[in-house]
Design goal:
Length: 95
């Protein structure tokens, strides 16, 4: 039996503002209020996914957490505008 040395968290969320040194990507986790279902997750993910440099978005309605991976740190006002466009409210960075 081999030992798994992966250090990912059980829910797949990274640290707020963390940088993955191997890929040069930045991961930030935000708290979004108002998400209640899969449709909500999709709307928020779609809007945030259109921001320049974003490579992945994972929204979880149950926790209200949205994890965004991008090439560089994102401007919080741009994130706020994208979440607002989706019809939800950005409470700020989680963590």
């Amino acid at each position: 039996m081999t030992e798994n040395s992966s250090r990912s968290t059980p829910d797949g969320a990274g640290e707020a503002g963390g940088t993955d040194d191997r890929s040069g990507k930045v991961t930030a986790t935000y708290k979004v209020t108002g998400m209640t279902c899969g449709h909500c997750e999709g709307a928020v993910s779609s809007e945030l996914g259109e921001l320049a440099g974003v490579s992945s978005v994972q929204a979880v309605a149950a926790s209200g957490l949205v994890t965004v991976t991008s090439k560089a740190p994102l401007d919080e006002e741009a994130v706020r505008a994208a979440v607002d466009e989706a019809g939800y409210e950005l409470a700020g960075q989680a963590g």
